[in-house]
């Protein structure tokens, strides 16, 4: 029983980890992009 479930648990765990890492990267990129756009608007005014 457990030997059949372990591969599914591992794959699910890696999938969740990959999604979390991608979300963290996207969040950091988005915040830096927002800062960059804010700086551009501040320079124009």
Into how many domains do the coordinates divide?
1
Using only C-alpha atoms, the radius of gyration works out to 20 Å
Strand content: under 5%
* Main β sheet profile: none
N-to-C order of helices and strands: H
Mean pLDDT: 92
Distance between the termini: 66 Å
Global morphology: rod-shaped
Uncertain runs with pLDDT below 50, 5 residues or more?
none
Q: Please report the total strand number as a whole number.
A: 0
- Structural class call reads mainly alpha
The percent range for helix content is over 70%
Continuous helix count: 1
Transmembrane segments: 6-24
Keywords: Membrane, Transmembrane, Transmembrane helix
Quick gist of this model?
Keywords: Membrane, Transmembrane, Transmembrane helix. By secondary structure, this protein is mostly helical. The chain is built from one helix and no strands.
Give a structural overview:
There is one protein chain. The mean pLDDT is 92. By secondary structure, the chain is mostly helical. The protein has one domain.
Question: How do the helices and strands line up, and which of them pair or pack?
Answer:
Elements (H helix, E strand, L loop, with lengths): L1 H43 L1
């Amino acid at each position: 029983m457990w030997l059949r479930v372990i591969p599914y648990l591992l794959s699910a765990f890696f999938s969740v980890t990959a999604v979390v890492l991608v979300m963290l990267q996207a969040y950091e990129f988005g915040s830096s992009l927002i800062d960059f756009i804010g700086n551009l608007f501040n320079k124009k005014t």
